[in-house]
């Protein structure tokens, strides 16, 4: 039937509840105080926990908090001989599944157990669903060539850690997708993934964007603003095109990485931050270092793990997969029946010189869908894809 833990400092209550549960064919474990119960819950898997509220040393509310800190999702049913509405509400607010007053009523116990078991099933189903979603997200990188397989394997290894990652590759190769996959498969996945395009923000505004500013720090600073480092705390901060970052911003980012603190523009207070940093660039940062445009110490801070994303021309065998992936996506976006490529069309796409990489391929697929019939042919590709220049 299931395994239940009973935590109560009164032996008579423990024995009475155990006898009821054993009669109902449950396996029962007992703990005579809160600390012992919490230790057992951390080392054994239980389907339900009954916990008294009033106990010496560690009371039931403290046990409940300890279970939550340990991320134990087992339904907890609080029991008390000193119960009132206020106590029950407090217990439920703190995460208890239900509250039962002493003396214990057999029917109420059995109904509550049945409801708690339903919750346990839902928790397990949610865990399975989360794993499925994680696998789906992690496999969002489309491709079967050796280079893409290596990237997927690297993401699986690196994602669970907090190691900083530098993603390199040409424009349009999908560096941001690698960064998103690292976040989705990490322990930080429930927190924010925040992206900053360092090339798109003017040099004079990049520091305010990253670190925030205090009211009156500059002319247009009419109120205090949190920066991306603060907003991403607990989650992931993706610094795209970091090779285009100004020298002064590089120095501040280096300090943030070294000390996990920032200062808002116009402020003097140190603010603790805890964001995982993933950076990306289409530049050769070693050459940028030689030219004096990028700090070598910042490079070494960022490049704990380096993931290089190959160009589309280096992975032509993936083009049929990508083209069919995009044709489904674009047809859905436009609300039209799915079209398809014939073999000659896919061969022509593989012959094309993709200077804009995957981003360019997607645009060409959208053009072909709009301009061509239900079956896109090799001649269609020659006519419309090769006119892209």
Name a few traits of the molecule.
single chain, 389 residues, alpha/beta, Rossmann fold, Helicase, Ruva Protein, domain 3, 3 domains, 5-stranded parallel β-sheet, 16 strands, 15% strand
Task: Describe what you observe in this structure.
With 389 residues, the chain is an alpha/beta fold. The protein has three domains: 3-130, Response regulator (Rossmann fold, 3-Layer(aba) Sandwich), CATH 3.40.50; 141-310, 3-Layer(aba) Sandwich (Rossmann fold), CATH 3.40.50; 313-385, Helicase, Ruva Protein, domain 3 (Orthogonal Bundle). 48% of the residues lie in helices and 15% in strands. The chain has 16 helices and 16 strands. The strands form five sheets. A five-stranded parallel sheet has the order 2-1-3-4-5, sandwiched between helices. The protein has a five-stranded parallel sheet with strand order 7-10-13-6-14. A hairpin with an 8-residue loop joins strand 11 and strand 12. The longest helix has 33 residues, at 106-138. It is extended. The termini are far apart. The model is unreliable at 134-139 (pLDDT under 50).
